[in-house]
Design goal:
- By secondary structure, the chain is of the alpha/beta class.
- Among the domains are: 131 residues, 3-Layer(aba) Sandwich (Rossmann fold); 87 residues, no CATH class.
- It contains twelve helices and 17 strands.
- The strands form four sheets. The protein has a seven-stranded mixed β-sheet.
- A hairpin with a 2-residue loop joins strand 7 and strand 8.
- Helix 1 packs parallel to helix 12.
- The longest helix is centred in the middle third of the chain and has 26 residues.
- The two termini are 24 Å apart.
- It binds flavin-adenine dinucleotide (FAD) and uridine-5'-diphosphate.
- The site of uridine-5'-diphosphate has 13 residues, from helix 5 and helix 6.
């Protein structure tokens, strides 16, 4: 059989494209080299029966009603607002930096206006914001930068704040009020039965065939298709002809703690300066699962391994652009997703990119 579409990668990018194309009557073969669907958003019950995110904590948040409504076709939701604390010399402080962070750290009792004035005095004003260092210094000044951002960033990326594009640190706002939510988006929810169940429903269409533990190389030998959607790393597609495009990897250390109702007070605790890992997440906070034990994950950033993060900096963008130029010659292939577009996308942004890609195909 010849499929209308081969889709490489069963993460958000691939699954959304598969769902839309199948719905429009096209036959789709969706493959993934991993033994499961969901890409990095895949979740599963560990051997102790706790729902975990094997590839690190995934919290859904978006300002787009359209994206939220689209995904709501495949899942119910449970309201969840993520909260994060950072450990500094044994004390915990809200992240993003807010009024509580400043008052607790410096032994102050500032009002909201007081914090505004305080930050105005300590910030190091930058006329042009190019790097993540500019972002942080411009918003909170040198001391808070060293305490909460410099070392965390070095650990996470293997690079200094000054070597990363502004977009990395801009993900974290600065607040002068007591809002201690990690995200401030309009829609903040977790899929009630988990991400994998949501993906299963997206892919439950007779026009979709899913083949797991199967690479593009395998498919080239055994199947035929008219057009392809590729959601893997763009440099791999082109055999690294211009050299490797850097992607940051992580080692996840998963641990189960029997007879532990609650290991930490909130979903994620960041360790900006101490420890080799960046953060610990306790899944029961995210999923609200009832269980006598608890499961946690520690994230250790590393250079080698599965590609998890594109590394946003000028020279990588330049290299990406060279690969992107090659995609022009691939008339029957569309490149979409965090790895193929080399964009530090959140899940909702990948869904938006994939919907746009599928709709263009359908409407052309
Ligand atoms: P992926 O999920 O990476 O899927 C690509 C798939 O392609 C993979 O399954 C891969 O195995 C497959 N593949 C690659 N090459 C081949 C090949 N040659 N043959 C076959 N298959 C191939 N976003 C949020 O919105 N909220 C969060 O809280 C959040 N937390 C995150 C935490 C971590 C630790 C990480 C790494 C990411 C997080 N994200 C979060 C981002 C989110 O994971 C991504 O935006 C989203 O999952 C990307 O989807 P994708 O389909 O583009 O890529
Ligand atoms: N960051 C930091 N300290 C923190 C939290 C974040 O320095 O306590 C910086 C760091 O560079 C990180 C970036 O802000 O990579 C974005 O953080 P986010 O939590 O969005 O990263 P992700 O969840 O994507 O790993």
């Amino acid at each position: 059989m010849k499929y209308n579409y081969l889709i490489v990668g069963a993460g958000f990018a691939g699954a959304v494209c598969a769902q839309k194309l199948a719905e429009s009557g096209r036959s789709v073969l969706l493959i993934d080299i991993r033994p499961h669907i969901g890409g990095n958003a895949y979740d599963k019950y560990d051997e102790h029966g706790v729902l975990i995110h094997p590839y690190g904590p995934h919290i859904f948040h978006t300002n787009s009603k359209r994206i939220f409504e689209y995904l709501s076709l495949f899942t119910d939701w449970r309201f969840y607002e993520h909260r994060v604390l950072a450990v500094l010399n044994g004390e915990t402080y809200p992240i993003p930096i807010n009024r509580t962070t400043i008052n607790k750290l410096y032994g102050l009792d500032l009002t909201e206006e007081g914090v505004e004035n305080y930050l105005e005095n300590i910030r190091i004003k930058k006329n042009t914001i190019k790097t993540s260092e500019d972002v942080v210094l411009n918003s909170v000044g040198a001391d808070l930068c060293e305490k909460f951002f410099r070392s965390y960033t070095k650990k996470q990326w293997g690079l200094d704040l000054s070597e990363l594009s502004a977009g990395v640190a801009s993900r974290i706002p600065t607040r002068t009020n007591d809002d201690d939510r990690y995200f401030s988006d309009t829609f903040q929810f977790m899929p009630s039965q988990g991400y994998t169940k949501m993906f299963e429903r997206m892919l439950a269409n007779k026009n979709i065939t899913v083949k797991l533990s199967s690479s593009l190389e395998d498919a080239k030998k055994t199947v035929r298709w008219e057009k392809m959607i590729y959601t893997g790393p763009i440099d791999a597609y082109f055999n690294y002809c211009f050299g490797k495009l850097p992607y940051r990897s992580l080692r996840f250390e998963h641990l189960h703690l029997p007879d532990t109702q609650c290991f930490q007070v909130t979903g994620t605790i960041n360790y900006p300066n101490e420890q080799q890992f960046t953060r610990i997440t306790e899944f029961k906070h995210l999923t609200k699962q009832q269980h006598t034990g608890s499961s946690i994950v520690r994230e250790y950033p590393q250079e080698e391994g599965d590609p998890y993060y594109p590394v946003p900096r000028k020279k990588n963008e330049t290299l990406f652009k060279r690969y992107q130029a090659l995609t022009e010659q691939e008339k029957n292939v569309v490149f979409v997703g965090r790895l193929a577009q080399y964009r530090y996308y959140n899940m909702d942004q990948v869904v938006a990119a994939a919907l746009a890609c599928a709709e263009k195909i359908i409407n052309d």
